[in-house]
Amino acid sequence: MFSLFYGLYKYMFSKTEFHVLILGIDKAGKTTLLEKLKTVYSNSEGLPHDRIVPTVGLNIGRLEVSNSKLVFWDLGGQIGLRSIWEKYYEEAHAVVYVIDAACPSRFEDAKSALGMLHLLCFFMEEANIWT
């Protein structure tokens, strides 16, 4: 009987959880975007700009919007860290790719990293990983 009520409670009050990857090359503004999202959509104050340091590995941010939970994975964009991006694709529901428009000299690097992301998504789709 308990499991019936628990299942009903969970169905009525649980929120769907979505995982969102925030990707881009190093110093593109991924962590700044995550902190701004936290400031705008939650009661917590995000980090000020002068306290944001380059991400080594992963930053996680959680937001609740209407009846959904959003889990943001801000992955480091240094060349050596881009190889870990693929480990998060299978669980992701969305990808946000950040480009720093104030730094045109890095557009080619951002384009190359986005191209590798596109190739990886293509191979994962061909291998039926997402089906």
TrEMBL record:
It holds the Pfam family Arf. GO terms for molecular function: GTP binding; GTPase activity; metal ion binding. Keywords: ER-Golgi transport, GTP-binding, Lipoprotein, Magnesium, Metal-binding, Myristate, Nucleotide-binding, Protein transport, Transport. Transmembrane segments: none annotated. GO terms for cellular component: Golgi apparatus. Mg(2+) binds at residues 31, 55. GO terms for biological process: Golgi to plasma membrane protein transport; intracellular protein transport; protein localization to Golgi apparatus. InterPro entries: P-loop_NTPase, Small_GTP-bd, Small_GTPase_ARF, Small_GTPase_ARF/SAR. It comes from the Eukaryota. The keyword Ion transport does not apply. The keyword NADP does not apply. GTP binds at residues 24-31, 77. PROSITE patterns: ARF. Belongs to the small GTPase superfamily. Arf family. This is ADP-ribosylation factor-related protein 1. It comes from Linum tenue.
